[in-house]
Give the backbone structure.
Amino acid sequence: MTATKPLDFLWFIPSSGDGAYLGSDELSRPSDPAYFREIAQAVDRLGYSGVLIPTGVACEESFILATYLSAFTEKLKFLVAIRPGVASPAYYARLASSLDRVSNGRLLLNIVVGGSAQELGGDGIFLPHDERYDHAEEFFQVFNQLLAEGHANLDGRYIKAHNAQLGFPPVQAPRPPLYFGGSSDSAIDFAGAHVEKYLTWGETPAQVGEKIAQVRASAAKRGREVSFGIRLHFIVRETDDEAWEAADRLISKLSDETIAKAQEGFLKNSDSVGQARMQALHGGRRDKLEVAPNLWAGIGLVRSGAGTALVGSPKTVAARLKEYQDLGIETVIASGYPHLEEAYRVSELLFPEIGLGGPRNQIRSSFGEHQVFGGGGHGGNLRVVAGS
C-alpha cells in the first residue's frame, strides 16, 4: 500500500490586518508591510511551501505585496489573485510574467471571479453571476496564450485583443499554475476546463467530497485532471481542551450585534454560492459552531470567505486532515490568529504529526549532545536531562 504523500502546506498573509480577538480592536495589529515581512520570513524558514495573499479593497494589492515579500524570502511561493475584469488580460500577463521572473519562478495564480457585488461594482464589473464566468473564459484564452507564446488575438463578446504582445516569458512554462475556488455550477464547470488546482473552503468532509467528485467529473469530460486544496484556519494546542479554550477565547469579545451586522452584510453584498454555504454551516448562531468533529465555524460569524477552523491537539487535527486527504485534498492553505504566533504553533506542533519537516536550514546548536532549553540565561542550555 502506497503511503500518503505529505500535504503541501501554505500559510496566509493577513494583508487587511491581524489580531488576537475577532470582533475587537483589543490586541489588534493594523496593516503593516513590516509585519507581513516578519510573517513571510518566518513561514519561509518554518517549512511552509508558500503563502496566500488575499485580494480586495480592504487588502494591500497582492501583486505589489508579493513582489515586496519575494525580496526577503528564499523558497516561499506566492499565491496571488487575478480578478478578470479589473484589468485586461494583457496587463495581468505582464504583471504575472514580471513577478514570476523577479521571484525566480515562485508565483502561483489564484483566480477570483466573484465576491462582493458592491466591490465588483466599484471595480466596474456589473455582469451577472454566471456571465462573469463566460467573461473569464475569454479572459484566460488571451492570458494563457500570451504567457505561453508571447502573442494573442481574440475578438470575443467580452474580450477584444488585437495583436496583443508580451515582451518576456515567465520562468515557469507554459505559465504559473492556476488555482481557483467556487461552488456554483458555473464555477465547477470553469474549474474543470481551466485550472490546475481547485480550492474549497473548509466545509464538512461529506460536502468537500461531493464538490471534489463534481470537479473531477467536469475535468474528465474534457480529458483533464485537477488537483485539490482546502482553505482552513487552525487552532492547535498541546491538548484538545486547550485548543477548545483558545477557540472560545478568540470570540470571547465578539458581541451579538457585531455578528448580526456581519451576517447581514454577507447576505446583502454577496452573490457567492460558497459564502452562502459557509453561512449555512452555523446560521449565525454561537451554539452551533462545531459543524463536524473538530471543525469549528466560529470564525465565519464575522469573517467573510473561509470561516472554519480545525480545533484540537496535534494528533486530533492530523486525524481530521487525513480524512480530507483520503478524499483527494493535497494542498492546505492555513491561517490562525495572530498569524505570526500561530504559524509557529502549527509548524512546531502539527507538522511532525503530518510528516512535514521543521524549520529549513537550521544551524547546529551543539556538537551532538542532547540539550534542553535552560531559560535563556548566560549559562546556556542544559546538556543532560536528569533521569534521561
Notes: Residues 20 and 26 are 8 Å apart (CA to CA). The two ends are 37 Å apart (CA to CA). The chain has a mean pLDDT of 92. The chain has one domain: 8-354.
